[in-house]
Amino acid sequence: MIETMKLFALVFLITSGLYAQEWTPLFNGENTDGWEHVGEGQFVIEDGMLRTQGGMGLLWYTGQKFGNVTLKVVYKGADKNNAGVFIRIPEKPEEAWMPVNKGYEVQLDDRGDDYHKTGALYSLTRAKASPAVPDAWNTMEITLEGDRTLVYVNGTLVTDYTEGEPVPEKVETYEPDRGARPAEGYIGLQNHGSDDVVYFKEVSYKALQE
Question: For residue 111, how far is the Cα from the chain centroid?
Answer without folding.
Answer: 18
